[in-house]
Amino acid sequence: MWEKDEYLQFMYERLLIMRELLADTGSIFLHCDWHKNAHLRLILDEIFGEENLRNEIVWHYHDKFATGGKSLDKNHDTIYHYSKSADFTGNEVRIQKEETTKRALRKKVDGKTVNLLDEDGNKIYAEYSDKVIDDVWDIGRTISKNEYVDYPTQKKEELLERVIRYGSNEGDLVLDCFVGSGTTCAVAQKLNRRWLGCDINKGSIISTTERLNRTIKEQMKENLFGKDFKGFTAFKVYNVNHYDVFNNDLQARQLLIETYRIDELSRGDFDGTLGQDYVKIISPNRVLSKMDIAEIIDAIKKNKDLFTVKTASKQKENTFENKVVVICSGAELDVRDFAKKENKTGVEIEIRDIQTDKKELDFKKPTEASISYITKGKTLSVEVKDYYSPLLMKRLELENDGRLSMKERVNIFDYRQAIEHIVIDVNYGEGQKKADTSFNAEAFLHKEKKGELVETAYSHTYERGGTYTVAVKIVDVLGEEYFETHEITVK
After folding, report:
1. Which of residues 204 and 23 earns the better pLDDT score?
2. Do 41 and 142 fall into the same domain?
3. How much of the chain exceeds pLDDT 70, in percent?
4. Which of 198, 272, 283, 381 could form a disulfide with 262 if both were Cys (CB 3.0 to 4.6 A apart)?
5. What values do phi and psi take at 390, rounded to 5?
6. Measuring CA to CA, which residue among 376, 395, 159, 458 is closest to residue 254?
7. Which of 343, 360, 377 is the last residue before a domain boundary?
8. Which of 360, 380, 397 represents a domain boundary (last residue)?
9. Please, are residues 466 and 424 in contact by the beta-carbon 8 Å criterion?
10. Does residue 235 lie within any of the structural domains?
11. Shared-domain flag, residues 113 and 86
């Protein structure tokens, strides 16, 4: 889904921020594979300095099935370890060996390493059943049932445990800015570290929240929160950006095409037409840059025949009746000035910023749901009776337009097919100010296996009577969310 330059720019911008956030004694570990590891190392060298490359760790997964063929099987990934300075945290980590080995004991004398000898002049040996880790890690990719959370990029806890033990101390703060299934945060929690996790994917946040709740409950059950505990005993989930409009670039492009009533083009250098004008849509996950403008100018030169000449003069460049409309979400400060100075094509470039236009734009209709709340005695029964997402219906309609046969078409016969997760807080806002009400996920209802329908009913028994606010959050297969609260009285 990424062009190479877009991906590297995306990573460059985020790694710059990571360096600013990193503690002076901190380290960053970047996991990648053969596709981009050479490119990413050059970016890391530029941002952190070549002298701060500490290790190129090879993660060898010995349990991958060998396929054979002319090329050797690719059975390893790379983990780059950079620090901010020479003064970084690096702990000795020992792991168990499969076999016990004997090793001669040695010591330094006058700067030279010599063997330790007994009274008879024989070498003294010691047996070792463990060893200090080096930069080649033999850790399989197969995840055990008790760890598995059915998330596509999930890593083994053993891998993250080794990273965290080596690069941090108890009480330190560990950040994973692409948290995925929450492995880093869960392992940091178990290893007595504080943690932060971020992700743009709402499904990721749901999976991570559920996993961390389970981890903390297990720690409470085992009475691990003693005087020496330096980690967290609870956590909050914050939404720090407005992702309620766009969840990904593909969705963004389609919504903007519909919102601005653009006639879509399936190929070429432009995304569509608006009347006689041509349209270029910039990913709303980043601001419009001067590089984008330079590429648009090149596209105009390449497609000069698309534009209608308005005036022609021997003294001047031609001017044209139609223009290029650029739709973006924010722009670099000097990008308009750059476009004015660099654009010598005679074709006007008009920049439309959705940050400015958004008050007048109806990006999408909200999701809808029907939920029942029944109380009998101290027991509450909550059930999602129906769910509807206009965006999901539109997406299916667009996808089905390209499918000729009825067998190929995707249809939703049961509303539960559209739901990925249902999360319920049975005492929403307990003991909190209304301005800072946080969601405490009491129940997670989700698909246990691929192809299964989500369970939509949940029961909870309260310990005492009173008035409670129940909050229900529904996340669908596109990451769209529905949220409502309902007040109940328990006798």
Report:
1. 23
2. yes
3. 89
4. 272
5. -60, -35
6. 395
7. 360
8. 360
9. no
10. no
11. no
**Model confidence at 198: pLDDT above 70:** yes
Cα(457)–Cα(446) distance, rounded to whole angstroms?
11
Q: How far apart are CA 480 and CA 440, in angstroms?
A: 19
Residue 308 is assigned to a structural domain of this protein: yes
Residues 310 and 448 in one domain: no
Q: Where is pLDDT greater, at 153 or 381?
A: 381
Q: What is the pLDDT of residues 221-260, one digit of tens each?
A: 888 888 788 878 888 887 775 555 565 667 778 778 887 8
Do 355 and 464 fall into the same domain? Answer: no
Burial of 50 (0-12, 13-18, 19+ CB in 10 A): exposed
Q: Looking at the structure, do residues 10 and 22 belong to the same domain, yes or no?
A: yes
- What total of structural domains would you count in the chain? 4
Query: What is the pLDDT averaged over residues 117-121?
Result: 85
Confidence (pLDDT) at 431: 61
Q: How do residues 266-310 score in pLDDT, each as one tens digit?
A: 888 999 999 899 999 998 878 898 899 999 999 999 999 999 887
Determine the pLDDT at residue 481. Answer: 81
Angle in degrees, CA 19, 25, 29, rounded to 5? 55
pLDDT of residue 361: 57
Residue 304 covered by a domain: yes
CA angle 430, 436, 437 (to 5 degrees): 40
Q: Are residues 411 and 286 in the same domain?
A: no
In this predicted structure, what is the pLDDT of residue 358?
62
CATH number of the domain enclosing 347 = 3.40.1350
Average pLDDT, the chain: 85
pLDDT-based confidence at residue 443 (cuts at 50, 70, 90): confident
Q: Which tokens hold the place of 385?
A: 């009776």
Same domain assignment for residues 375 and 321:
no
Close Cβ partners of 170 (under 8 Å, ≥ 6 residues apart): 191, 192, 193, 230, 231
CA separation for the pair 432, 467 (Å, rounded)? 15
Please check whether residue 238 lies inside any domain of the structure: no
- 360 has a pLDDT exceeding 70: no
* One domain for residues 319 and 354: yes
Q: Tell me which residue range forms the domain holding 344.
A: 249-360
Indicate if the pLDDT at residue 104 is higher than 60.
yes
CATH code of 193's domain: 3.40.50.150
Cβ atoms < 10 Å from Cβ of 329: 22
